[in-house]
Design a protein that fits this description.
213 residues; mainly alpha; Arc Repressor Mutant, subunit A; Tetracycline Repressor, domain 2; 2 domains; 11 helices; 0% strand; elongated
């Protein structure tokens, strides 16, 4: 098997596995299911990946790279509520693309030790990024809150971003529009911050909310 063909097959396995994990739930998908979906033999799949956890790990590494890029703090010097909404949308879209990781987060962390370590780092990064953004907003006098409140808000934002997907699956009907699920998650995060924004930003946030919800 040529290196080029090997690379293409490996890529297809990861893409197929991600789609099946998202659509059917990771616990319901086996390596045989993935091979059947691709119309290849299980032996061909095992040539590239020893087991399902190795496939999950490789998918996670892609997610890790994307979420770290998404979490890059925006330039807040000329930012407004709409910029913050769009920034959060990029993060939520990344979460949605790899949603199986969030749906089965606890089980996966218990099963795959190295995934646990890496995901904990991402959770800490979410909170650290939120803290940096809130402090920047405070410095620009767009947000008014003491250090303790800002630290608590940062943790709440990281918590909501991490577990919003499971909450939305539980509370909304299956037919509920996917984009609205994401926008409602963003809305709840923005509403956490809203009481501490200046009046101009609060008004702008109300306008943005009506536009996207």
């Amino acid at each position: 098997m040529t290196a080029k063909k090997t690379g293409k097959t490996k890529e297809r396995i990861l893409e197929t596995a991600l789609r099946l994990f998202n659509e059917e739930g990771e616990p319901n998908v086996t390596t045989n299911h993935i091979a059947d979906e691709m119309d290849i033999s299980p032996g061909n799949l095992y040539y590239h990946f020893r087991n399902k956890d190795e496939i999950i790990w490789q998918i996670f590494l892609r997610y890790e790279e994307q979420i770290k890029q998404a979490l890059q703090s925006p330039d807040l010097r000329t930012a407004n509520a709409e910029d913050m909404w769009n920034y959060l949308n990029v993060i939520f879209e990344t979460i949605w693309e790899y949603r199986f990781l969030y749906r089965n987060l606890i089980q996966l962390m218990e099963r795959i030790e190295f995934l646990k370590r890496h995901f904990r780092h991402i959770l800490a990064l979410k909170s650290k990024t939120a803290l940096r953004i809130l402090n920047d907003l405070a410095t620009l006098e767009l947000l008014h809150a003491d250090e303790e409140t800002i630290a608590s808000l940062a943790d709440q934002i990281a918590l909501t971003a991490t577990f919003w997907l499971n909450y939305s699956i539980a509370i909304y009907d299956d037919s509920f529009d996917e984009s609205k699920r994401l926008n409602h998650g963003i809305f709840h995060i923005m509403r956490m911050v809203a009481p501490f924004l200046n009046e101009e930003e609060k008004t702008y946030l109300d306008d943005i909310s009506r536009q996207y919800l």
